[in-house]
Amino acid sequence: MIEFKNVPLASLRDLREQYLASLCYPQELHCEWLVAKGTCVSIETDGERVGYFVCSEEGQLVEFYLLDKMFARKEEIFGRMLGEFQIKNAFCKSFDDLFMTCCHTFCRSCKIGGILFRFFTDEIVMPLPAGVTVRKAKEIDIPLLLTHDSDLYESPEELNYTVSNRMILMYEKDGALIGCGYLIRILSDKNIFDVGMWVNPAFRRQGYAVMIISHLKEMCLKAGYVPVAGCAADNVASRRTLEQCGFMTKHCAVVFEF
After folding, report:
1. Which of 46, 157, 193, 252 is most buried by its number of CB atoms within 10 A?
2. Which PROSITE patterns does the entry mention (predicted)?
3. pTM of the entire structure?
């Protein structure tokens, strides 16, 4: 008999390691952050844990995993899960085969929600111009950063977290803030970093977005890290910037409605 039990995320460590190892490409930072604040449920049968799923704070399904021996029952388990937990939608990486198959089986509609970049050339497109300096943001910079538009951060709490953990680089010229670069380790035990950028509106359309992403990619390659990226499907400017910097994509994040 299949049972569902709410559990803390830490208790799923072994299963999550198996899940992440089963993916052909690196985890998406957006998913990892949703999981960190989500509701975790263990899937069990006869006292044995055989899988799990995670829903975000808003109730969106973001991870679903079963041990290989349970694949024959995937539709039964997934269907029960949707019904018992009243799950209405899911956010699924296109290279997450089991999750994708189950979502397609039960969905009434779907659309591309994000573009995932997991390939890149080694070429550095744009070096830092003369006069541009780079430094890690510090807590003293937070009041200044908070004065800029919300594209720089989703919430003040997120900004505090990324700055406190030295995940934001500030690009400056002649004392003015050109923009910021994000360099965020996705998983604590992997040298895989999500890269992203924000450009001060006063400096947009001057090539600085390409400069920042090129510099972040160069930093990763010199350190032996793997850079990955993602953007919303409708964020054409970010996608073009990443592609100009040598990032390539054949994957996406799909939003399913059940």
Report:
1. 193
2. GNAT
3. 0.92
